[in-house]
Amino acid sequence: MFAYFFLNLHANIVMKILSFILIPIAFLIYTQNIRNGSNKITNTTDTSEIIELNNNAFKSRLINPNITITNAKKALQLSFKLNYINGIAESYRVIGVGNSYKNSIDISIENYLNALSYFKKSKNLEGEAKVYNNIGNLYRDLDLKKSLESFNKSLKIAEKLKNKNLLAGLYLNIGTANQQSKNYTKALSDYQKSLSMFITLNNKLGIIQSNQNMGVLYLNLGDYQKAEKHLSDALKNAKEEKLNNSIAAVNLTLSSIHIAQSRFSKAEKTINEGLLYAKLLKDTKLEYNFTIVSYELENKRKNYFQALNYLQKAYKQDSAKYANNISEKISLLETQHIQLEKQKENELTIAKQKNTQILFWASSAIAAMAFLVIFLLIKNVRKSANTNKVLTRLNLEISKQKDDLDRANQNLEEIIDDRTKDLKVKNKKLSEYSSHLSHQIRSPVATLKGLMFLEKDNLIEKDEFVEQLGYCINDLDDKIININENLNNPGKSGLIDND
């Protein structure tokens, strides 16, 4: 009974501790999962699908930017569903790339900055470097200084990671920035580095873009032969790979070379082919550039009326382009401001998540301590139960000994009662013997005393004295024998009276 009560008492204590410690911890862990979602991706098939969608979307940028944006948005939705941070970041980046090919600068920069924020969150340096490279390309036509700053940030990370593909692409882009700032020597050096690395990597797209950019550079330097060679190689490979954007861009540069060399038929053919791809891509920037080249062709042919038409068309497009560029620059500034605010919010969110992680680990530590306490309590309960079993066994032994002692006491009481009765009987007999002795022995003694007085006064004869003295002695001896027999034989009922 004592053991049952003891175990119940400890069980209640353990349950109370579990209630006060584990329930709040479980609540904290639950809310942590609700707020942040699970960072563990258990379905590798889904993540592979995201990666494949983004890769295919990125490859489509030179063929059809709309396909790039559509596929990247699908990847973005799936990434958010799985809370796949790197997938979210890459999807934003590819959406930005698609919009940059459509000349939607404000949408593009917004997506790039979102991508950068998520790559930083996941500490993905390669992703950060790619985004800085993309931002550099976006700024190239707006602000060369900012463009080179972004390229250099990317270059620093790429060199740290020793990422050859990314380094080759960066040298290509940095070369273009240097060419636009008319630093042709540096641009040529960057292009040569890029082309050499792309050939080593067997990167066909990189080789095409390097040849295309070197063709533009040699055109600016007036070396038409080298320019045409690089551009012809680029055009051939671009057609093999079905890269519509590259085909249009190469045709644009080749038409300028043909015009410069007065090869008007070739120039016209090249312009028509390039314009077809530009319209297919719905690239207004390329269409404008082909209008300018068409003006140059007709002007060189001295077909001034047609040249004037192209010039008017270019002027209209240029005015719209200028307005759009101003609008885009304003939108870009506004977007940057908004993104800075978002970035601050993201940083705060990251800080909160770090605090939540700290809270989670603290809760885990408390939970571990709670389990340790419970383990010690259970161990203590088991130890107490064992102790209680020993105590119960000892109690049973003591109870048994007490019963034995009670039985012994009862037997002792019975013995004492018997002894008491026996003593009472003996005391009664002694009292009787004393009274009898006093009565029986006193008579012979009195006779002896009388005989002594008689003999002393010479009132009795000596013979008679002796005879009477013998009677008294025999009588006294008989009485003593009788007393001894009665004392030593409890079966006798009483003393014999010889009077």
From TrEMBL:
Any single Pfam family the record assigns to this protein: TPR_12
Top-level taxon in the UniProt lineage: Bacteria
Coiled-coil residues: 391-422
Transmembrane segments: 12-30, 358-378
InterPro entries named in the record: TPR-like_helical_dom_sf, TPR_rpt
Signal sequence range: none
UniProt keywords, alphabetically: Coiled coil, Membrane, TPR repeat, Transmembrane, Transmembrane helix
TPR repeats: from-to residues: 208-241
Record protein name field: Tetratricopeptide repeat-containing protein
Native source organism of the sequence: Daejeonella rubra
Source lineage: Bacteria, Pseudomonadati, Bacteroidota, Sphingobacteriia, Sphingobacteriales
